[in-house]
Design a protein that fits this description.
Oligomer: single chain
Largest sheet: none
Length: 99
């Protein structure tokens, strides 16, 4: 859902620039490239990882994952990195540099 909201905001902004004559239709092609970047670099990867973690049956592997999440929650640097990645902010900044 998060990526869908970001996607809609980006599309609306690009459409407005085209409709207002600020940019040509190349803005929509750029939007497609940005959307693809977000989809492949973040959304798809996160979905696969979440599914894998939810289906994990090995108790040792499950415990390692929980410890990793706990460690990220206790370390401000790791916590920020986790939040920047999972909120898509990091990826959207990358996408914003795509021409």
């Amino acid at each position: 859902m998060n990526s869908g909201i970001h996607d809609a905001v980006n599309l609306a902004a690009n459409l407005l620039r085209v409709l207002n004559g600020e940019e040509d239709e190349g803005a929509l092609e750029r939007y497609v490239r940005q959307r693809r970047h977000v989809r492949w670099s973040t959304s798809r990867t996160a979905t696969i990882a979440n599914k894998k973690n939810m289906e994990q049956r090995d108790p040792h592997t499950r415990q390692q994952y929980r410890e990793e999440m706990k460690r990220a929650g206790e370390d401000p640097v790791l916590a920020k990195k986790f939040l920047m990645r999972t909120s898509l902010i990091e990826c959207l900044r990358d996408a914003g540099r795509i021409e």
